[in-house]
Amino acid sequence: MSNERQVIQIPYNSRQVPAGSYFCPYTVTTSTFVCTANRLYLLPVIIPYDMIIRKLGFEVTTLHASNHVVGIYSWPRGEFADTVLLGQTTVLSSSTTGLKEGDVTIHLTKGIYLIGINTGGTPTIRASALTTQKLFWMSAATATSEISFGQVTFTYTGTMPNTTGSPSFQTTTPPQLILKT
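Structure (tokenized):
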């Protein structure tokens, strides 16, 4: 992240993320993630108390002249068939490096949500550390089978889809998407 912005890992046992703070639901790392065009990447995020999200974004480390949108979905009961788009950013360009963020006003109550990015190109963005946290669940009793994020082929149109569809699950390092209170 740039020097004037600091991203913190959300403390799940904390009472409050300070207003105006950026946070990432997973361990922040210097690793990177190469996006594939026309994909909807989805990561679960636990919101430990009611809050208002003011910005959503990602950090571009290697530019690609393309556009992307970030949004949040409800995820009742952990069923993908029940997801509903709660809000999204305007189009964010990855034609330069650095933090890309868009304004939103999304009121979230305590619960589990999905944060997603719909990619229109192939920039390299910051990744989250996979080894320290189980992001979804494990498909078997071994650490090598942990599910890190979901993805859906979805043609980029400048908006997020209204529902997520049925994602395929990945076991590689997930993209890092950030929120700001």
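The first strand starts at residue 7 and ends at 9. The mean pLDDT is 83.
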